[in-house]
Every structure is written in structure tokens, then in C-alpha cells.
Design brief:
The chain is α/β, with parallel strands linked by helices and 342 residues long. It has eleven helices and 15 strands. Strands 3, 4, 5, 6, 7, 14 and 15 form a seven-stranded mixed beta sheet that branches. Strands 10-9-8-11-12-13 form a six-stranded parallel beta sheet, with helices on both faces. Helix 7 links the parallel strand 11 and strand 12. Helix 3 packs across helix 4 and helix 3 crosses helix 9.
Length: 342
Amino acid sequence: MKRLAVYFTGPREVSVREEPLPSLEPDQVLVETMLSAISPGTELLVYRGEAPAGIVVDETISSLAGSFIFPLQYGYSTVGRVTAKGSDVNPSWIDRTVFVFHAHESCFVAHPTELIQIPDHMRAEDAVFLANMETAVNLLMDGTPVIGEQAAVLGQGVVGLLTTALLSQIPLASLVTLDLYSLRRQASLELGAHSSIDPSAEDAVEEALSLLQGPRQYRGADLTYELSGSPSALDQAIAITGYTGRVVIGSWYGQKKSELDLGGRFHRSRIRLLSSQVSTLSPEMTGRWTKTRRFWVTWEMLDKVKPSETCITHRFPIGDAAEAYRLLDEQPGEAIQAILTY
């Protein structure tokens, strides 16, 4: 049996290869892919050759072993159906629809422990957002928003939009988002932001600060998320955050360096910079939280937000994967979530 697989072969070079499918072991299942989502953040770093070559691709996902050295496969949001099983696998797995943290392939073998069963009532188009919604849930857990706070989110890509959607369910005094592209700003408003502004505008910081003033005129955000993927945005995030506020950094900059201006008001502001990454839970949470419990919440939020209705803008057959990455790279203002179909 053959499969189609997406490979990154060099900076801005993508090929789709036909290759033999590994044999099915007794403790494995065969998953035929229905659709997979391209991460316009992390995957574009890989596509552009901006991911650090010296680190492991992913320390928690077995199918993404190795390092960021071309050629490589990448991707972590796949929905498929189990169509065959090894002799040691429970027959109940057959015909289950599952989510798998797996690279873009038309079919693949996996151990049942790697599969996450999708609730029967959920559409595949919403389930494919599981990884990014889990990230958004983790961002809220790390940022600990409080009722009545003023919050800002820089970057309204997929993770930024999902984070905005979750924040909008909390009675915040202000929820302001910033993004370069009008398509994303409009989606942000649809998902619950009170205001959404262009961070490249000359008066963007002053405009954001004017929107982030509570009933006692506390100036600046209590909680700011930097999710743009742009190191320069971190300075802006600090600038719109108020005294003793916290900035949660969910962006992964890859090889891009961040040069921060910490010589002004930051020194006296007591602003906290917090790193957030979904592979682990904050140590403060692990007494009562596990990844399994976080998944329960993630499914509930997917059901509530239904991100496919707002975020999916393009669908490409797997054979046109190179075109999908080119669009996201060269025309980011025209797309939010691109999906590969099989």
C-alpha cells in the first residue's frame, strides 16, 4: 500500500512524495486521513527554514522524532478514521474517527495510545483544531485572567483567535486585540473582542491604552498575550501593559532574535514576562490538573466555539500542499486556517 506524504525539502520548498506504507504490526492500527490543518505559525518557521536545527522537533510526540534538518516531515493536527488493526488491538477501534498529533500523510500506522477519539457529535472540521485549542486553553491557564480585568492579545492567527474566543467568555472590562490584517481583525470581533486595531498604525499603542482603561482609569492591560510570532511585538506588548501587569509569551520565534527595550518604564513597572508552552502544564497546576483533564476542557471549548465556522478560509488537496504553504507565507492577510484534504 502506498501513501502520500508532505516533506519540507529546503527553505520554502515542499514536495509531496508517494512512498510505501510501513507494515502493520500486531499492536498498531491503520489510520486513513480525512483532513489535516496547517499551523500558520510553527509550520511556517519550518517552511522558511527558521526553526532551530539543533533542537528536537518535538519531545512529546513520537511521530515527530529527529531535528529540524531538511528534509523533514512536520505537522501535528490530523483527523482520520481507523480502517485496519493488528491482531493484538481491540476490534472496537475499527471505524473510529480520531485526532492524531501527526505529520501530513494520506494514511499512517500508529499505536492506539497515540489516538484521541473524537466525540461522536463533533464535526471533523472542528476537531482538527484540537491542538491549537489545547494551546489556547493552556494560555488561559497560564495567564489566569480575572473577572473585570483588562486584557490584550497581540496576534490574531489561529491560536490568537482561539485565545480571544476563550477570553471573551470571561466578564472582562476590556478585551482588545491587535493584528496587521483586516480579515483577522474582523474574525477577532466575531469571536468576542471588544476592539481590534492595527498594530502598525502610528498611534497604535496610544489607541490600545485608551481602550484599556477600567472604571478607575487604570492605564494599560492587566494581562497581555504576545501571540504574533514577531519578536518586535514583544516591545509593543510591554508598552500596553500596566503596572504589575503580566505578559504571557506564547509565540515561538525560532531563530529570530528579540531585542527588547527594557530601559524605560519597564524597570519600575513590575511587569512579569511569562513563557507558556502547551507541551507541559504549569507546576502550580499539576496537583489537580493533568493533560487528560485539559483535553476534556479543550473538547468542551471546541464544541462551544466551533472554530471551523470562523477560521477555515482555504482547503487544498494534499497534492497542492506547496501552494497552501506559499499562500500562507506570501499572502498572510488573505488566509487564516488552511486545511489539507485527502
